[in-house]
């Protein structure tokens, strides 16, 4: 009895998040036949936008930056410029300290104002002394080690630690400085100071096209981008609700992906490809690799990647008294007595996120330091976020905020944690895989950065890497 007849393509991609989609688009532009396989019923991964009851909220990332070159190139390719919206001018950002939200300076002129009470005077002076602190960058530095040495203990606790929670939902005592923020670490390594390294870097940099400034999104949310990529690919390039079980090698140096339907394991299929990009989360990537002893170090490295759990609590309501906090949002340092990591104010940043006269806020809980919080009941999560907001921004007048809309989203594999040595381990895993399985490579936000731009760029780079290697092999065979 024979199995299903394989579909033959140039490139098969495992995973339909922004990484896999960007890879598919880059390969399509090269004229290659592509098949993207996604286990869920839809593409986009954690990039998903939803309209409900007049509110528009994000399941995952909330925006992208003007410097997101890979995203902007995709926007240009797909002719989505008219769908892009610009965030409001930089608004207030807050740090929670001693039971109140403390406004961060908008610029150097605000740093020493009397109402700038996010840090003590001594802490600010120590932070300003960064250029005069002897550089001692070490590859084993955690972010907290790095911040304490460069900026002092107060800035480390009240600026860096919450900043890390806001980006990685991570623990500054575990994340590697060189791994999570390589540019900052490199500046200290090369110039002995973050400030001096940044200044020297700017002087040495060649003139570039002026970058867009600010934060950006789409009129209908970030989910616009993945769906636009999928729609722009040739028909039948994307197959959802399909689980890849294993990648097996063939005698002709091609690869066969054995698959089954997500809801019916008996419904099997095969895809045969010259090249494969595994753009799935690291644990899934480890599972689809062949049971080859040479790949044991790769599987071990992938399974060792820590992915933290996060719960997102969207809530909104009427704001007739205009008392809802305005600006970008608030971060909450560890040790302040609140389980909430931070609260964003999407309706203050982007138009169309809440009905007229209403607000939309988004709280975050869980993360590397408090993973069990992500599993709490919905009403408990909302109460924790509401308590954090009311304590940080006590109402002193006007009509109280209304609450009419709630939505809780849980991610059990939200954000990869770039612990000390992470990048070296991932680079070695990728190299070992490509040596053991020529024509197969990895891509994703656990390799080269966690932003949506990093993720898209990882997929594009994977295509370039595969075909550079393929051209080199072809040249050797023909010589």
Q: Low-confidence spans: pLDDT under 50, at least 5 residues?
A: none
What share of residues is helical? 25-40%
Arithmetic mean of pLDDT? 92
Shape: globular
Spatial separation of the terminal alpha carbons: 43 Å
| CATH C-level label of the largest domain | Alpha Beta
Determine the strand fraction and express it as a percent band.
Answer: 15-25%
CATH second-level architecture of the largest domain: 3-Layer(bba) Sandwich
Q: Which class best fits the helix and strand makeup?
A: alpha/beta
Q: Give me the count of strands.
A: 19
Radius of gyration equals 24 Å
Q: What is the number of independent domains?
A: 3
CATH topology (level 3) name of the largest domain: FAD/NAD(P)-binding domain
CATH homologous group name of the largest domain: FAD/NAD(P)-binding domain
Main sheet record: 7 strands, mixed
Our count of helices gives: 15
Please provide a brief summary of the model.
The chain has helices spanning 18-29, 69-77, 121-128, 143-151, 153-168, 177-180, 182-191, 194-204, 224-232, 282-288, 296-303, 346-349, 378-392, 422-436, 452-478; strands spanning 7-14, 34-37, 49-52, 55-58, 64-65, 84-86, 93-97, 100-103, 215-218, 238-239, 242-249, 255-261, 264-278, 307-318, 329-331, 340-344, 358-366, 405-416, 440-442. The chain has 479 residues and is of the alpha/beta class.
Structure write-up:
By secondary structure, the protein is α/β, with parallel strands linked by helices. Strands 1, 2, 10, 11, 12, 13 and 19 form a 7-stranded mixed β-sheet that branches. A 7-stranded mixed β-sheet has the order 8-7-15-16-17-14-18. Strands 5-9-6 form a 3-stranded antiparallel β-sheet, with no helix packed on it. Helix 4 packs antiparallel against helix 5. It is globular, with a radius of gyration of 24 Å.
